[in-house]
Amino acid sequence: MNTIEQFNEHVMQTYGRIGLVMESGHGQTAVGEDGKEYIDFGSGIGTNSLGYCDEDWVNAICDQAHKIQHTSNYYYTKVQADFAKRLCEATGYEKMFFGNSGAEANECAIKLARKYSFDKYGKDAERNIIITLVNSFHGRTLCTLSATGQEVFHNYFFPFVGGFENVIANDIDDLMDKLNKLDNKVCAVMFEFVQGEGGVIPLQQSFVNTIMLECAKRDILTIADEVQTGVGRTGKLLTSELYNVKPDITTLAKGLAGGVPIGVCLANKKCSEVLGKGTHGSTFGGNPISCAGGNAVLDKVTKPEFLEEVRKKSEYFREKLVQIDEVEGVDGLGLMIGVRLKTKKAADVLNKCFENGLLILTAKDKLRFLPPLNISYEQIDKGLAILKKVLDEK
Ligand SMILES: Cc1ncc(COP(=O)(O)O)c(C=O)c1O
What we know:
By secondary structure, the chain is an alpha/beta fold. It has helices at 3-10, 43-46, 55-67, 78-91, 102-121, 142-147, 172-181, 205-218, 239-243, 288-301, 304-322, 346-355, 377-392, and strands at residues 22-26, 29-32, 37-40, 95-99, 129-133, 164-167, 186-191, 194-195, 201-202, 221-225, 249-252, 263-267, 327-333, 336-341, 358-359, 361-363, 366-369.
């Protein structure tokens, strides 16, 4: 029995997988069990932020594993304290909570927002509605699925968690209408600056400004889900910096620890004390090895010259993409790139690219690229040459 057959016999079939068994990786290259190499423009959905097995990152993880791999959250570790301090200082947030994934980071944000209103306005006020956006994606737990504004996800698992209302992204009138209708019942507005799974669609500045302004007026918390957009992905440490706003809460995961599980919920001073003893927790949250990986990522992504390079590479990527005939347009921000095609099907292009040694992603009907943040120009050229060949084929 080969690896794929063995896997499929024992693992629930919740993913449509590609027939590649990855054995190892180095830099921006993944290596299959059969020795075949692939340029990776997906980086594990934006998670291997420094590529495969970056040497400093590997050393940080291995050193930590030699010291202590886990302790319950009844104790402290220095590596956690260091990571938390560095992340809060780099992002300008007051405090954070440690989880292990994007969904967990968002669960924390949702609990925090509801308790903020509960503490301040009382249970009877029922100020617990969270507005999220149509076409959003916030995770796969029952609560974050309920928050996700896509009907396709609201099936099978009834009853879903109540208290979520959707507003059309970039529709200021719809936002104002819902805020006015749900007067005094809303505790938070939650959004992605760029809807990733939804098709790599950035929010407009005016829409973000309206969210920030109206929420501040009404004492509604703003939650930025930066699970995919955060940690340098768009050329700033946080995408909120690009929009020049500071949400009350920001969630991060994916690339934050370079490929080991982590998810954090960052809160500003206004709401950083809301979750007190016994209100939230996670056995693995703040795992020392993840924190060591996180420190190695922060060493690089907090440097202005690193972020400048992300911006330059993004421009380079885009300039080359628009030169391909089949490309209708390029969306997204930084190294979070969506490509609209004129005639071809994104899924077919993905398969053809795979056959030719290039790993890419799709989002809705677009091609999607989330390459490692430190991808080299050489690898961009090589990968895009494969893509061009596939797209030029008649
Ligand atoms: C914006 C956003 N939020 C949350 C999640 C869920 O993250 P995780 O799969 O780590 O739970 C994702 C995953 O794609 C995401 O893109």
